Amino acid sequence: MSTPDQTCLLFVQLTPKAEEEAAFNQWYETEYIPAFVRDVPGIVRCRRFASLDPDASGTRTYLTIYEFADEAALRRGLEVMRSRDQWRAAWKDWEKRAVASISDNLFRTTVSIAGSVRS
């Protein structure tokens, strides 16, 4: 049976340029993401994933998932993100020099069904 769940997600999928991947990941994971989680209200959790298989150049695609308590928290969080000129400037600099492709999208929960871990 499904459980009511108001969780909303911001998905950011990107592929860094091969020559900037390590430097970009260092900045993104140690500065950018922690600042968002600390300073954006409503973020419940953030997780980042790397593709299991790199592309032909050896570069991986990354997926960052920002989890918000509900849609109102997501909308407030997006406003905070847009209002931070320092974050936006740093992001634009990195995006221009280090990101080969990027996409993002917003999602809300439609059903939540707990599973069990099996070996």
Helix content: 25-40%
> Architecture in CATH?
2-Layer Sandwich
What radius of gyration results from the CA coordinates? 16 Å
Low-confidence stretches: none
Shape: globular
What would your notes on this structure say?
By secondary structure, the protein is of the alpha+beta class. It has a single domain, classed as Alpha-Beta Plaits, CATH 3.30.70.100. It contains 3 helices and 4 strands. A 4-stranded antiparallel beta sheet has the order 2-3-1-4. The longest helix is centred in the N-terminal third of the chain and has 19 residues. It is globular, with a radius of gyration of 16 Å.
Summarize it.
The chain is of the alpha+beta class. It has helices at residues 21-39, 71-83, 85-98, and strands at residues 8-16, 43-50, 62-68, 99-108.
